[in-house]
Design a protein that fits this description.
Number of domains: 1
Radius of gyration: 17 Å
Order of helices and strands: EEEHEEHEHHHHEHEHEEHH
CATH class: Alpha Beta
Structural class: alpha/beta
Distance between the termini: 33 Å
Number of strands: 10
Strand order of the largest sheet: 6-7-8-3-9-10
Largest sheet: 6 strands, mixed
Oligomer: single chain
Shape: globular
Strand content: 25-35%
Number of helices: 10
CATH superfamily: P-loop containing nucleotide triphosphate hydrolases
Helix content: 25-40%
CATH architecture: 3-Layer(aba) Sandwich
């Protein structure tokens, strides 16, 4: 589904990503772990075309490094940024509609607006309310659902549980597992080690702009040295 090889990326003269290599298969949840500032969000932005990388980024066999973000989105990649980038002056329903690709109608893909309302009753109750009045958790749900409305084959979700209540964290976990059940590959950037270890098929640990560990959650649990050096604060 996604193959990243020797990817580098810069902010000005700052060399942020220093040879990142990873792969994600269809229907797989892969967690990208690491401390703040090591390059996890930059990895998502570079894949999505918000930041131009060097190296190779192949999606379903096609090279996408250097393409514009809208071109990458149209190929089937969805991105849920950590800043919950909603349109506050539009209603919940209107925000969801904006997730559709050009020419796509509601219900044409694997997800419909009714699916979203069935999964998240809070969004249904606030369907015609401006998104600015939604709680932080509801805004996070809205951002994820809007991305899914575009029917992506692969989605990157950056820090979806940041600042959420335990109940909303569980809702995030539920939708991530439903995404995988529908055959959609997921790259999950997450600070909460527990949720990532519970639902991920594989994990990558990042440090100083490089991948320093790759394996299953069980393998990471056995690596006290990796967790102490690269994950624990």
């Amino acid at each position: 589904m996604l193959d990243v090889t020797n990817m580098h990326a810069y902010y000005g003269k700052s060399h942020i990503l220093q040879g990142v290599t990873m792969n994600i298969q269809e229907g797989e949840i892969v967690a990208l772990l690491g401390r703040n500032g090591v390059g996890r969000s930059t990895t998502c932005k570079a894949i999505m075309g918000a930041l131009e990388p060097t190296g190779s980024v192949r999606f379903k066999g096609q090279e996408i490094a250097g393409k514009k973000a809208y071109e990458i989105a149209n190929l089937g990649i969805g991105y849920v940024p950590e800043n919950r980038d909603i349109f506050p002056g539009l209603t919940t329903r209107q925000n969801l509609t904006l997730g559709l690709k050009p020419g796509q109608k509601d219900g044409m893909g694997r997800w419909s607006m009714q699916n979203m309302f069935d999964m998240f009753s809070n969004l249904k109750e606030r369907a015609d309310v401006e998104a600015s009045v939604l709680s932080g958790g509801e805004q996070q749900m809205l951002t994820m659902c809007r991305t899914l409305m575009g029917d992506p084959d692969f989605v990157m979700i950056d820090e979806p549980t940041e600042g959420l209540s335990p109940q909303m964290v569980q809702k995030v976990a539920d939708i991530l597992q439903e995404i995988a059940r529908r055959g959609i590959a997921t790259l999950l950037v997450e600070q909460k080690l527990s949720i990532a270890m519970d639902i991920a098929n594989r994990v990558y640990v990042m440090g100083h702009g490089q991948i320093v560990f790759e394996g299953t959650p069980d393998e990471l649990r056995r690596r006290d040295d990796v967790r102490k050096e690269w994950l624990e604060v």
